[in-house]
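CORE FACILITY INTAKE
Project code: CF-77B
Contact: R.S. (postdoc)
Sample description: multi-component assembly, three entities in total
Requested service: structural model of the whole complex
Turnaround: standard
Below are the sequence entries exactly as provided by the requester. Do not edit them.
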Amino acid sequence: MDKLARFFKMPPQIIRLVLLTIGIICCYFTARYFLVPPSFGEFGHYRGDALQMIASRQPFWAGKASCLECHSAHADKLAKGDHKTLSCETCHGPGREHVENPVVKLPKLDVSLCVRCHEANPSRPKWLHQINPHNHYTGNLCTECHVPHSPNDVP
Amino acid sequence: MSENMTRRSVLKNLAGIVGGILAMPAARTCKAAVQNVLASSGAPKGYDPFQHKWLMALDVDRCIGCGLCVEACKAENSVPDGDFRTWIERYVITKADPASGKSRGETFVDSPNGGIGGFKTSLIPKEDILKSFFVPKMCNLCEKSPCSQVCPVGATFESPDGVVLVDKNYCIGCGFCIQACPYGCRFLNPTTHTADKCTLCYHRITRGLKPACVEICPSQARIFGDLKNPVPNDPLQAFIANNKVERLKQNLGTNPRVGYAGLDEEVR
Amino acid sequence: MDATILTNLAENVPQFEGYVYPNERTLHPLWSTLIVVYPYITGLVAGAFIMASLVRVFKVKALEPIYRLALLTALSFMLCATLPLLLHLGHPERCFEIMMTPHFSSPMAMFGFVYAWYLMAVLLLELWFDYRRDFVEWAKTETGLRGIIYNAFTLGVTDISPPALAVDEKMGRIISVVGIPSAFLLHGYVGFIFGSIKANPWWGNVLMPIIFILSAVVSGMALCVFAYMFLCWARRITADMRCLDLMTSFLFYALVIDATIEGLDWLHRLYSAEEGIEVLRNLAAGKLFYTLLLGQACLGTLVPLLLLGSLQLLRKKVSELNRRRAYFTSTALILVGVLAMRWNVVIGGQLFSKSLRGYMTYKLEFAGAEGWLLSMALIALPFIILTVLIKLFLARELPTIENVVPGATPPPKAHPATA
């Protein structure tokens, strides 16, 4: 310590502190070597692997395109009417199981579904056909008068 | 005395060098083991994020407030109850009292459970309503996102293809990004204890599918597309060409990319 | 999310008035009492250090009795500063990321380095240079655990010759000078964290870091006075009135500046009346009435200003006992008032929606991670650590210069063997 002190012409307490500082900085860089993830900084200040990780989640909804692969007739009918903006799964629910194994059938639909979109509400835009479910028809099924796949037609 | 020290010091140095060389493979194995927790490899396979720029636009006049998009997102992304990656707001603007000399009356905004299950008829009598509409809300895909600016560790970021994402394996859960988002689109996920938000269904769009909300929306209120790869009859390009567009909280300088067509002044 | 909140969301729950973004409808605020405690603690550190630096840098001789106490106070609070943050994180086991991959655009990323710098390069170093001579001497005379501790803290350097002591003195002064901006950085960055959030009109403004620093200095100085008076009372010795009078003078002027800037903040908000002023005004007058108007403004600022201010003018006419009572009351009020200020900023900023149309109400729990029991424990812990530090380094029996330790025994005569 005294030799070092004399060599650098610094008081011994300063030498001791400088050595301690160098030690701490070395510890920091050693820790960095181990703890910074490998893909960090690849595209920006984040783990490049994160993109792959986020993209690897399994999709839940099948998507209209996969329905159209087999049910193109329905798709053609749909495309001609006001319901052309709907996806199959909007009404029929999640279809992935059926796409993977067509033996599995999707559940039957309930008319509450029609009311969900078509119930009259002052907040809804005017271009939407809206009905008051209590007055419009007191029967059981909307499908008695309407065809969901081509709503402009009658059954 | 000095000879002993020289030999001793040389031997010490040699030992140090040999030790260092022997330690390197051990250090490397250690590093690999430690980093295994955080590693896999590169961008999604076959997908180059630099070749795409995703955007969603919202047409307020087309939203019917059915809330199916919120439910679809919840199913797609396992969003916890009470947290929302997207939601619908209903604005009800009442008529002004003529004596007041104002053009509009009060504005009432609500979002019961984010719009899940649809909206029951408003308690405000129909005759008092001047105008009313639904506004879908989501991450505004800011170019200068304040959320990624304030993340202390680099867990939330703007991807090269224009989506603001959260790396849930790296997030420390400090909540700074949630505080910094002016649009209220972030939340702390109670299961993962990390920040969470709309990912534009990154796992779907990188496979050529549409985000769940866009897929399920019955009225084309949500328009989605790739600005760098427009398809023939691209709905997004048509939207951009045909609509005057407003963005939310532009005074804050976050440069939100999500444009709203038909936005009213009362929307925040 | 609680099931009760869910079922009530369809109707307007009194918990959320007006319109609140769906993601803001949480049981607890995101940044809760733990985040109130953290700036309070670092503020006390910064303020106590400023008080100590008045002795070293500005050579205010009359304050020497509290020099070591101020530094030890700063140290004991500094040691606890990371606890509220760690307890608050969603993933405390990933806390190292903030130092390994700091995102420099984030003020929070500064935390790791500023904290490490301030703890090691400022506080510990300055303490070491001041105590070094005593460590060497005490290591010789004390036995047992204490002897080992003092020996360890000498770091193996035993040179206490006059040139070495001169080096200590010089280094101590340099560190004090460097320490003042470091103290501002330590607490200023916390203010900047809030000041940088443009999404929140209560937080995001340019005066926020300044207000944080100023109230930190005030609280730290008040803590020094309070601790000194308490220590003297505990040791049954009379506090040095000259020291006390001077400390409280500085405290008064600091409080004046602090109150002015906070007042300016409010004046400017009310005058320019930008969007959101209605929400903020309702917040201040409504939900924050007790903590802001009564707690922070009246009790925490106005009353101490009046007390200390009148004592500045009437010092000669007021007896020592009454002055001491006034100082004790003022500093206690200031300490509570500054805590109220942190509360009003942190919690207050989360009581209204970013939609600027609604307010949230939260229930403050007693126990649990968000509860105030934990926060009180975190505020009490530094005092426990300070007691230990005082026993080790400011003990009455330890021989040292008398006026640097309240009630200490004077240094022993030089030992014949070392003369």
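Facility notes:
- The domain at 49-142+197-261 of chain B is CATH 3.30.70.20 (Alpha-Beta Plaits).
- Chain B touches chain A through 65 residues (CB under 8 Å).
Invoice: internal transfer
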